[in-house]
Specification:
Length: 374
């Protein structure tokens, strides 16, 4: 991964005056019994976390190229910021060259403290109701000035709001579609604490792809996503598919899960999200496609991304293992066999990796782009 430059570091420090979040133990009383040995790679009596050196296959290309430089120039000239830069994404160069970028709405302070995430946690001070307009204007600048083709919009969790920020989400999507005809819009949304009316607002705005990441296997939720529920996230994906939208999810590996748990997750996703002929989906894994290759009879979750977990800071959950490229290839094969239409699986894969291609394959955006050029 390319190390962040001084300007990027300065921006991050300015936006995060408090220590970066992600430590779920900061607001929790000391445990009576320590369970760290069950999830961490500790060894010895002192329970020190072993430092794991990155393997040779975790090497990202240095960003470059004409299209990358054009988008970077537009962003700098207009003082626009992307999650790609702020998070130091290893795929930034490739994505920007393809005309793909990711932005974050609803502020920079999250009401949750997930064990893997480096976003600041706390109570957000304000709600910017003018944000949808400014986001749409920024996207139009990026589209016209640098040929932005696909945008991924994500957000922090805003659990203190009655609708979890869904109103801002919906308005942002609608305004972006109006301002940027021909641009495909993917949203990476929170679970809205199971407020299905709030989710419906996002669905009704009709983005091209709705993504909600499961992040990890069921057993790891208390450590990785302590404020989330595995079944609630599955239900969100089911409701997206039920209404005919393209559904997407993603997980990290190398955070403490076992390979068989990953395969079980794939089965659960496909069983829970399947929707056919207006009937209720079958929630029995025995009725989904199995590793033996039984055919899917229903339309279930469309896109799956699987990538290597990388520990942001010492305050976050440690890396349990480096998953090999061969194992990632096996996960991809198993995902496709179970009925996912697109599976991106690799050490450096992130949610927005090849997102434009996914939109081209699974949505009607091609026709929309042709209409926009007329």
């Amino acid at each position: 991964m390319t190390p962040p430059n001084d300007q990027t570091i300065a921006r991050v420090l300015a936006r995060h005056p408090r220590p970066l979040g992600g430590d779920p133990l900061r607001v929790v009383d000391p445990p009576i019994v320590s369970l760290s040995g069950m999830i961490l790679n500790n060894t010895g009596e002192k329970d020190q976390i072993a430092v794991k050196r990155k393997p040779s296959w975790l090497r990202a290309k240095v960003p470059g190229g004409a299209e990358y430089s054009k988008l970077k120039s537009v962003l700098n000239d207009n003082r626009l910021f992307t999650v790609c830069e702020e998070a130091g994404c290893p795929n930034m160069g490739e994505c920007w060259s393809r005309g793909v970028a990711t932005i974050m709405i609803l502020g920079d302070t999250c009401t949750r403290a997930c064990g893997f995430c480096n976003v600041k946690t706390g109570r957000p001070p304000t709600l910017d109701k003018d944000e949808p307009r400014r986001v749409a204007e920024s996207l139009a600048i990026m589209q016209q000035g640098a040929g932005l083709k696909h945008i991924v919009i994500t957000s922090v969790n805003r659990d203190e709001l009655q609708d979890g920020g869904a109103g801002i989400w919906a308005e942002t999507i609608i305004r972006a579609k109006e301002a940027c005809p021909g641009m495909s819009i993917e949203v990476l949304i929170p679970d809205f604490e199971g407020n299905w009316g709030a989710l419906q607002m996002v669905i009704d705005a009709r983005p091209h792809i709705i993504n909600h990441n499961l992040e990890t296997v069921r057993r790891m939720y208390p450590a990785v996503r302590p404020s989330a529920k595995f079944d609630r996230s599955l239900e969100l994906l089911r409701r997206v598919k039920e209404q005919g939208l393209v559904a997407k999810t993603g997980i990290m590996v190398g955070i403490g899960e076992r390979d068989e748990e990953v395969l079980a997750l794939l089965d659960e996703v496909q069983a829970r999200t399947a929707a056919s002929n207006g009937q209720q989906p079958v929630c029995d894994a025995a009725n989904t496609q199995t590793s033996q290759g039984a055919s899917m009879k229903t339309d279930s979750c469309d896109i799956l991304t699987i990538g290597q977990y990388l520990q942001p800071t010492r305050n976050h959950l440690p890396i349990d293992r480096w998953v090999t490229p061969e194992q990632f290839a096996h996960f991809k094969e198993e995902g496709l066999r179970r009925g996912f239409k697109v599976v991106e699986s690799g050490p450096l894969v992130r949610s927005s990796y090849h997102a434009d291609h996914q939109a081209d394959v699974l949505t009607e955006i091609g026709a929309e782009r042709d209409a926009a050029r007329v």
